[in-house]
Amino acid sequence: MSTAQPTSPQPTSPQPTSPQSGLPLAGLRVLELGHYIAGPFATRLLADMGAEVVKVEPPEGDPIRGWGSKAQGHPVWFSIHGRNKLSVTLDLKNPRDKARLLKLAAGADALVENFRPGYLERIGLGPEVLQAENPRLVIARVSGYGQDGPYRDKPAFGAIGEAMGGLRHLTANPGQTELPPPRCGISISDDLAGMYAAMAVVSACWGRDRAGEGGRGRIIDINLVDSVLSLMEGMLPEYGLTGKIRQPAGAAIPTAAPTNTYPCADGKWLCVAGNSDLIFRRLMGAIGRPELAEDPRMADNGGRCAHAAELDAAIGAWTRTLPAKEAQDILEAVDVPCSRLYDIRDIAEDPHFRARDSVMELRDPLIGPVLHPAAPFRFDGVAPRDMVRWTGPALGEHNARVFGQWLGEEV
């Protein structure tokens, strides 16, 4: 934990977001029927941009409330996953709570769900039912394989999106057959689907509102596999035209050299991108190999790619003699793009992250001082800290507020 002084305590019950907050989605009302990662990540992004997000949880809560290390008896992950959201509890199989959900939908702009395809229809809350209550409601449906197609009913988690979307094939090390290609370390396909869902929700709301009073809500179909597939650059047209299948390249980039990650004397790694002509010359000078910069074989990127192994060996021989931070300082002094491979401690303590409030210390009423990442976008006139209006709330903390203000109930 940082030694920085914590901010003043966040209120347990947040104050309503007003249009004067400076956040672009202030006034947008969103319901979340999500669990685990993909759907809740989409609504977290919308909430960070000012939307009023109501997270509808079952009486036992979102399972992700139980994830992560504990502080004061509460697992810490939900502090981020639930931030800026209002938590209410509803049993969607209970007729009274189902009616409440429909009333909430009647006053919402959008709804995000990530159940298995067909689940909402089976419990009587499919899109046709929801939009009968509110024809302007935008509904984003996030699933493993999509709402149609021969695989729609198959179960899927994030790892399956990586595997079928093509990413896991590329994370292998060339020639490595004894160990499986590793995952990237986070639930990247869930996060990608969440980002795409947030983008699609905002787009659909803009299109609906631009159409005026007659604008209707759209139904959005987002899935984990297609979200990963969308990142596969030019691989699909390349295969279609030539039959070429891109193979794993490890830490290198086949089309640019020298670009790789090199071992250092302290056991850490240094990522170096020296693939432009001018940067390459500066890099070779810094590592004491200026003759390679004068070698006609290395005169352009194509030549350097053809001799990437020789260049990597030269750079690696130099980095092995130095701690990663010292090697980075030497290369940065001559304007060569590079970075140590940061772990989470490096991130938490880095002065750049701290100066920009990309890493900030907040006070969570449930767990005490906690580090949060800032939202990945900045809006002029709004400080990063001001975008985190509150941390993940207690289960059902806002039942009275939401059912009172949205539904007019006396609770």
The strand line-up of the biggest sheet is 5-2-1-6-7-8
The CATH architecture of the largest domain can be given as 3-Layer(aba) Sandwich
Radius of gyration over C-alpha positions, nearest whole angstrom: 25 Å
Contiguous uncertain segments of 5+ residues: 1-20
CATH class of the largest domain: Alpha Beta
Helical stretch tally: 19
End-to-end span in angstroms? 40 Å
Pfam family, one: CoA_transf_3
GO molecular function: CoA-transferase activity
Biased composition (Pro residues): 8-17
Keywords: Transferase
What does this structure look like?
With 411 residues, the protein is of the alpha/beta class. It folds into two domains: 19-231 and 357-405, Crotonobetainyl-coa:carnitine coa-transferase, domain 1 (Rossmann fold); 269-340, 2-Layer Sandwich (formyl-coa transferase, domain 3). It has helices at 38-48, 77-81, 95-106, 119-122, 127-133, 158-165, 167-170, 188-210, 224-229, 235-242, 277-286, 290-294, 301-306, 308-319, 324-333, 344-349, 351-355, 384-387, 399-405, and strands spanning 29-33, 52-57, 70-71, 74-75, 85-89, 110-113, 138-143, 219-223, 259-263, 269-273, 338-340, 359-364, 368-373. It has a six-stranded parallel β-sheet. Strands 9-10-11 form a three-stranded antiparallel β-sheet, covered by helices on one side. The longest helix has 23 residues, at 188-210. It is elongated and about 80 Å long.
